[in-house]
Amino acid sequence: MHFPAEWHATNREAQLAAAQLASGINALRCANHAQKGYYVQAFFGLSIGFERLAKLIIIADYATKNNGNFPNNGYLKGFGHEIKTLLKKCNEISLERRGGEDYCEAPNSIISNNIIESVNQFGIISRYYNLDLLSGGRAATMPEPIKFWWDKVGKPILLKHYSERQRKNNEALATQINSLIGDQSIIIHHTENEEIMTDFGRLIPHEGETKIVQKYGCFYTLQIIRWLSYLINELVRVGAYEKRIEALLGIDEPFAIFINDDTFFKKKRKWLPLTGGGL
Questions:
Q1: Beta pairing, strands 189-190 & 196-197
Q2: How much is the pTM?
């Protein structure tokens, strides 16, 4: 059985986008003040994954409206690389095709919007922040991406999800450990905001905050991915099965694992969409 080159291209693109999104979520779940490289890995994966999935959605929508023909290169270039612009277009497509259905609208909370802004800035220019800071490049004029994430995503998450009970427990543990070995320890760590931490009284509460930001940073990001996954699923239903556009067949499959409820998102720690499941 022969499949055209266009089918291979769309399916490669779908697998790439899903793999990058999964990689970004997995890294985000590990990111912390002592391993900041995970933040950058997460931002790379998410910025690439969102851009490629959004463009795949735009292409599929165009094909279903134009007898299976795909847009020319100029059409796609018109959207550029700005994720906010691409997701705005996806929201228009989603409301047109899925209006009134579950997850038809893009998530629109402060946290969700700041996630998109963070990934958007990184994808456009701030991915070069470190090198440009050293060399005087343009990216150094942008907010440092990890600090921006912590301030705009992490802090709102803590306000909403970090309970007073959790805070008091972490502070009590910090006091206990400090009293036992504080005088015998030397600690030099820096928060995501580059603030220095020199004792357990500061370190342990921050680690408690980090666990909350890791969990809910992934959770709100997955809600955005879920919205897009429902949309690509609908485009395949219409394009591949109703309009018989062969090149769209199967491009929704790598994203099937993201079509799940909030409880699943909060519990799942490892994402392997290309195998149809995970650990």
A1: antiparallel
A2: 0.94
